[in-house]
């Protein structure tokens, strides 16, 4: 039995793009040649700016986006699921085991369904339960695990605050008893006090229910706190990957360094200015050749500047992977 | 010296179908030229409503109390009724930057035309001069190819660039007061760092007063001189940023700081503030924070205390209720 739950091997996701009907078809390279292994029971963090391909990768792993090349394998207890050529029956099975928590708790819940119906819907759609009684039991069970007040199950979402709504979304994701959860910016829309509450809840549920998370976020301080291992994405590539403590103590890639220095310090006397990256993330339609980061790199070498280097992760320390280009440049 | 802006005893109430909602109650703030006042608080704490009151941008069902004063440059903004008076403040003396730059630009009008339009309203200049000022301003905020961007639409710009253009537009009329309502919340950290540095430089250069609204205490630490912490429409603590963040007195401020993940201290557990912010429809009587206070005294628990700021050290004001509770 494998110790990994998910293996992502050389995965790329491209989208077709045509500006208008007479112009040439182009490809958007959203995710390029990604290799990651997510261990069972781990809290895997994926960080990066908007447009870096975090969400696309998360959706590809869930089978919600088409994978252009490479494969994603989900290692279940008895068997493996290969998501690249999965048949309909298996995909249905897989959906029970891998679920998604969305970003915006205000948009993710139907305003016309009661909380009980929202949480019960996956059970009914996937035909997991056989009777109404059984459904109700499962709903009540998971709702209390997510610290929802059981008397509130008959209310509609508008009666709840952001944090409570997010707990409802979590309950809905967990009701089918999944093993793998993708949390896509699940705390980004919440206030700090509630954010802490939801993060603690996710951790607690992980222990109780033996879950594995892929936690997608742009907030490094949150990721540093909850994740065991973190991968930093830039323009569709992973540029650095390491256990979170190593990554935050000793970042190697210039992009990670810039990201870390950009977190505003809570100490008003710490007036050190952030390492400012020039410009903005380039368009994925037309990514730089060679190292994708070279247009914003603070100290590119000559090879790199001319786009002659190739990207690829190398292990500089045990379990600490950095893009080779950056390891050579600086 | 008189302050650039002084808000005294302001209440803001909205008449809705469900009754009269108190959004802001009895707040007093002041701001000097060249300073940044940060307002922090959770969503629903009345931060934006306060800022909008200064520009009279709250909707028609808004009620202000009679003894409230918002003194801007020795004039009480709340007494302004005519359109001409309001025009002077909206975009003239006061400019505002919003959270979502995509929603604040008209999508079908070029960025440049929008900038020129507001300059023509507020300044006695012709179109060409306005264009020149606008392009200069765009360059000033670090937009490369300012002339090209001037002729583009909002959707052609990236998020960070749109926010810069928004700032350029807000500053082009040389306002005395800039209201920045969560200007960096929708941006990535790297772009956020750029925008914060930009705003800092501009304050230095033009000596304007800034009210900076955010829920991110890290951003406040980096940009503000003074902070007001708001909870459910009341200011519960205010003072110099150093004192508030290093030596917070109010349990709510302490709670906010403890809930914040700190990259430099990964072992610290995240402590959420227990409970939820109550609905403004059933605002707790007495101290508004009592439903979530970690150690309320008996008087407080029964809603018998009155709120009011007292000065615990020079310039550092805390709600009296919490001082008594401990």
Question: How would you sum up this structure, described in words?
Answer:
The complex is a heterodimer of chains A (330) and B (326). Chain A is built from eleven helices and twelve strands. Chain A is an alpha/beta fold. Chain A has a domain of 78 residues. In chain A, helix 3 packs across helix 4, helix 3 packs parallel to helix 5 and helix 4 crosses helix 5. The two termini of chain A are 40 Å apart. Chain B is an alpha/beta fold and 326 residues long. In chain B, 35% of the residues lie in helices and 23% in strands. In chain B, the strands form two sheets. Chain B has an eight-stranded mixed beta sheet, with helices on both faces. The two termini of chain B are 36 Å apart. The relative contact order of chain B is 0.14. At the A-B interface, helix 5, helix 6, helix 7, helix 8 and helix 9 of A face helix 7, helix 8, helix 9, helix 10 and helix 11 of B.
Pair of chains with the largest interface and how many residues each contributes: A-B, 44 and 42 residues
Domain count of chain B, please report it: 1
The N- and C-terminal alpha carbons of chain B lie at a distance of: 36 Å
Strand order, main sheet of chain A: write it out.
6-7-8-3-9-10-12-11
Number of strands of chain B: 13
Question: Level of helix content of chain A?
Answer: 25-40%
Strand order of the largest sheet of chain B: 7-8-9-3-10-11-13-12
The Rg value of chain A, from CA coordinates, equals 21 Å
In CATH, the topology of chain B is named Rossmann fold
So, the CATH homologous superfamily of chain B?
Answer: P-loop containing nucleotide triphosphate hydrolases
The counted number of beta strands of chain A is 12
Name the CATH class of chain B.
Alpha Beta
Strand content of chain A: 15-25%
- Estimated share of beta-strand residues of chain B: 15-25%
pLDDT averaged over residues of chain A? 88
Morphology of chain A: globular
